[in-house]
């Protein structure tokens, strides 16, 4: 049953990523991959919230696996970040190619910590 729940959660996470990315891309036409950045940073925040719930024993191991690993795992992905960084580099947008992964990783770490703090307050 856990595997089925994880499968469904991963499908929901992937569809949410697709919808949010496309919604943002409809309004963002510049070469900087803002839609992926927004998805990755919001995912880091949500991951932090769930992590706090797990840490405070408000989420079971199964709930953690379903929500964080399956749903958010398919919602955010570093592979898109890597691909878009290479695309920026190859298009000679060198400054953006260096800036984008730094903002993504640094911002992701900060938002994960902030999400964890928020989760500590909520749980």
From TrEMBL:
Catalysed transformations (reactions): fluoride(in) = fluoride(out)
Signal peptide: none
Regulation of this protein's activity per its record: Na(+) is not transported, but it plays an essential structural role and its presence is essential for fluoride channel function.
Cellular localisation: Cell membrane
GO BP terms, alphabetized: cellular detoxification of fluoride
Binding site for Na(+): 73, 76
Pfam families assigned to the protein according to its UniProt record, in alphabetical order: CRCB
Molecular-function GO terms, alphabetical: fluoride channel activity; metal ion binding
Keywords assigned: Cell inner membrane, Cell membrane, Ion channel, Ion transport, Membrane, Metal-binding, Sodium, Transmembrane, Transmembrane helix, Transport
Record-level GO cellular component terms: plasma membrane
Topology in the lipid bilayer: Multi-pass membrane protein
Listed transmembrane segments: 33-52, 64-87, 99-119
Key word Metal-binding present: yes
Function: Fluoride-specific ion channel. Important for reducing fluoride concentration in the cell, thus reducing its toxicity.
Family label: Belongs to the fluoride channel Fluc/FEX (TC 1.A.43) family.
Name the UniProt record assigns to this protein: Fluoride-specific ion channel FluC
Biological source species: Alishewanella aestuarii B11
